[in-house]
Structures are given as C-alpha cells and as structure tokens.
Write a structure and sequence with these properties.
The structure is a homodimer. By secondary structure, chain A is α/β, with parallel strands linked by helices. The first copy, chain A, contains eight helices and six strands. Chain A has helices at 5-13, 21-34, 36-52, 69-72, 87-96, 123-131, 146-161, 184-192, and strands at 54-55, 62-63, 77-84, 101-105, 137-141, 165-168. In chain A, the strands form two sheets. Chain A has a four-stranded parallel sheet with strand order 4-3-5-6. The first copy, chain A, has a two-stranded antiparallel sheet with strand order 1-2. The first copy, chain A, is globular, with a radius of gyration of 22 Å. At the A-B interface, helix 1, helix 2, helix 3 and helix 5 of A face helix 1, helix 2, helix 3 and helix 5 of B. Chains A, B: May play a role in DNA repair. It seems to be involved in an RecBC-independent recombinational process of DNA repair. It may act with RecF and RecO. Chains A, B: A zinc finger (C4-type) spans 56-71.
Chain lengths: 199, 199
C-alpha cells in the first residue's frame, strides 16, 4: 500500500527551496483547507511550466519560445551585451536599471571543483556572439564572490580577444550604507578605489 | 496575449502560505533550474490531492477514503474522544502522545463574528457520537486562546448534557521553560493552579 495522498503531498512540497517538513505540512493543510482552487491552478501551471519552459536559443534565459521576448525584441540595443549568472540576476537588472541592451545568461559560474567549466556555461555560444561584430561592449555582471570574480576575469579575456570592450559593475559602498556597518573587504576596496571629487 | 508562463507560475506559487513575490520567484527559478522532476511530481500529487482528499465521515479529518485510517482502525479505544481544532493539531497529538482513542476535528473554532457557529463545526455530528453511549470521556484539546476557551466551554456543556465526562489539556509552564521568560498570563495561571508536592 502506498503512503496516504496527504503524506505524498507534504513530501512533494519539500522540493521547494527552504521548505522543510513543518512548512510543507502547513502548506498542504492550507491548500486543502482554504485554497483548493488556487492549488488546482498551481498544479496545472506548474505541470505546464516544467514541460514547456526551455531556454532561449540566443541568451540561454528561460523561455517558452525559441527566442525570449527580450532577444526577439527588435528595438533592443545589440551593441551592448550584459552577462549575468542567473535568470534572477537578469530580472533584477531589468527591473532596477534602464538598460536597453541584450543579455547572456550563464546559468552558473565557473567552478572547476563542481565540474562547471566554460562548456557548461555555454561560453562557446558567447564567443560566437562576440565574433559577430555587432557587440561593442560586454557588461560583466557576475556576482562579487571569488567564483564570480574568476568568471569575470575569464569573460574579460574572451572579450578582449575579440576586440570587444569589457566592463564590470562598480564596486563600493551600497547606497544608504552606514560606513560603520559596511564589511571590511568592501570598505577597504571602496577606500582604495576612491574617485576624485570634481565641481 | 496572456502573461508569460513563468510569470503565471510565480503568481500561482503565491497561494502558498507565507510566500510573497520574491519567494515565489526564487521557488519558480529553483524548480526550473534544478528540480524539474520534483516539480512534475509536485504538480501531479497536488492535482490529485485537491481532487481526491475529502473529509472522514466520522471525525471530519482529511481523508481520501470515506473513513480515515484512524477511524477505520478497529483497535482504537472508542470510549475516549479527543476534539481538536485542525488536522494539524490532531497530527501533533498523535505524534507526541501515546493516545489510543479516536478524534473529532472541528476544522475551526466558535467565532460568531466570522460567522462560525456550532453548525459550521459539525457539532450536531459530535452530539450524535456522544449520544451513542460508547464515548465515556471527551478530551477537549482546543487551543488556549479566547475563542478556543469559548469553544471548550461549549463542548464541555454538550458532553455533560450527554453524561460524558469532559476533560481539558493541562495549562501551566511549558517543559524546560525559564520562569523569567514565561508570559504573565501563563505564570499567573500556573501560580494560581499550583499542585501540592507529594513524596
């Protein structure tokens, strides 16, 4: 005899990030008690999404069509190419800035110990795009971690080899950040890369 | 044109309790990036669960069969009936105690302002069970809130009217609780209902 359906549901909910036994249980009860309609809709959408959402052929972002809406959009500036680690990073930049160029999503970062090399990040595809001569600036927006920095270094080399200008997001104090509470590394870096104040 | 599937998924995930826009987004990306199999299983189990899980005809707990496994179990003690507010409470008692009796799940508590009266809690059904003469003790395990107490009071009256002995879970200091950090109400109650120490 298989486990009761309720237990199966609690177990299945645990694939969600940050959801343990207790939370999964609370979610299952909530759905059954008060949100059967929403639960049904979630089940349907989720089934369709894992089935139909693939990757954009050009930028590797999630997309249900061959090209994602951004890549398919003719009015985006193709001379600027912004490289990010994940779709979530892409979305954050899209929402926070007025950037009108296009993206390339690595879906990870160089991490030899985990077996993630240039191949896994689709860097051959990126090189092809750099070779197409449309791209003039490669904006490297990988994260400011050790692995992110290593990836950025590698990407900058790729860009220079193709006569593309690499750039990197500015590092320093976060806006509104109190000096006292900023971590040592950031403070030291910001101090070292201080810029002259002009009138 | 409808919203992209990914946005629909993020929106659908927000029916889960405690999940806002940011968490839903993180969950959607996690499922698509690393847990497509788990996502598919979750979708299937959820669809089946909201469809097939109903209520036990006897105790009103969630059940996929007419009688839940506990009610259908012939070896449970039918002279003890424990009333709880929710399926989660029932599970907590079942896991923490060695209770061998049966349950009755109110699926709520008396709350006239929200339109929840004896009818909504299935108290007619409970009265019928009390009338069947099998039940000797009604263990009232509603929560220690104002509404829970009111419900407990009402249930105790029902039990007495049917010559059934009502009982209520003990209230006092939680095990391992430091006196200093216990709330005033609990401390005052525990002090007032102190019991004599016997050798």
């Amino acid at each position: 005899m298989s486990a009761p359906l309720l237990e199966q549901l609690i177990d299945a909910l645990r694939v969600l990030p940050g959801v343990g036994q207790k939370t999964a249980q609370r979610m299952a009860y909530h759905l059954l008690e008060r949100e059967r309609e929403g639960g049904k809709r979630l089940a349907g959408t989720l089934a369709e999404a894992v089935e139909r959402i693939g990757h954009c052929a050009q930028c590797r972002d999630f997309s249900e069509t061959e090209l994602c809406p951004t890549c398919a959009n003719g009015s985006r500036e193709r001379s600027q190419l912004c490289v990010v680690e994940s779709p979530a990073d892409r979305l954050a930049i899209e929402n926070a800035t007025g950037y009108r160029g296009v993206y390339f999503v690595l879906q990870g970062r160089l991490s030899p110990l985990d077996g993630i090399g240039p191949r896994e990040l689709g860097l051959e595809q990126l090189e092809q795009r750099l070779a197409e001569a449309e791209v003039q600036e490669l904006i490297i927006a990988t994260s400011a971690t050790v692995e992110g920095e290593a990836t950025a270094h590698y990407l900058a080399q790729l860009a220079r080899a193709r006569q593309v200008r690499p750039s990197r997001l500015a590092q320093g104090l976060p806006l509104g950040g109190e000096l006292e509470y900023v971590d040592r590394g950031t403070l030291s870096h910001a101090f070292g890369t201080r810029s002259e104040v002009r009138d």
